[in-house]
Amino acid sequence: MPIPSSETPEPSPAGGSDAAEPAAAVPADNSEPSPTTQTAPSAPGTSETRETGGKTENTRKSALTDLERAMIALEKRHWKYQGTKEKAITALGLTPIAYYQKLNTMIDSQRVIAAEPILMHRLREVRDRS
Prior knowledge:
Layout: E1 47-52, E2 55-60, H1 66-76, H2 84-91, H3 96-108, H4 110-115, H5 117-129
Helix pairs in contact: 3-5
């Protein structure tokens, strides 16, 4: 089946070509962008876009770590049986004591409150009732 003319032609053999090619050729499938774009934040708390390894990641200074996201997901769940939350905590690689110490620091962190304000408010109220 012939290749449609809209796709990028195959590179010509080394030694010469009849048409001039641009200096930076764009990949034919456009699945991965060039890993060169990087913008620096202008003020604290602003966003920074970084393309590394062909993947664009939006890194904010207020972004949550993977562990914090996992802990938030655990706190959003409702546990039916005793011990299941503790098993999930140990699956994160933390002891229950370390988990709750980290959770207490997260409850007071402005960065986490900005990401999950309703959950952090509820958890703060539960903690402060005691």
